Hints:
The protein is built from 4 helices and 12 strands. The chain has 193 residues and is of the alpha+beta class.
Amino acid sequence: MLVESALLVVTAIVLAVVLRATVAEAFRIPSGSMEPQLDIGDRVVVSRTAYHLHEPRRGDVVVFDCPETAGCAAAPHDALPIRALHTVMEAVLLREPQPEEYIKRVIGLPGDTVQGKDGAVFVNGMRLIEPYLPPGTVTSDFGPEKVEPHHLWLMGDNRGNSSDSRVFGQVDQGTVVGRAMFRIWPPWRTAFL
């Protein structure tokens, strides 16, 4: 009986780690840059497979590795057993992931020209309709900037409090972890994104 229980626990942990690494993972919102859509401490499910099926789309909310140009600290190089333990603990939500990933909204796609002017965002010369922003939101001036191939222009919804492509530049699509699909925490705010 004890062996069966231990085997069941080990199987559940391995399954959680594999699913987190290949299919989906929970991500905790670390800052107010996506308010009011996502508050600090909310949790979202991030699909790691979404962009295997299609390219990123304007308006998607994505999680990506912190760009070097944002001044992120290098990830610690713990020994393999310690890294494995941290991965297991994060997969079963017993440890908070380290703040080496950001979450923002896709504004510009490869080949687009993006610009902030007159308090709004313009893509290819057309004002971008952004129904996810609260009324009265003002975007600071930037650009125009042409988005390079295989890159994205990403911005937070909380335009006055977001370190985004206006600060760290375009983001290589290869650093995108996945698409945020659902807000799952707190339970009373559960919603599709």
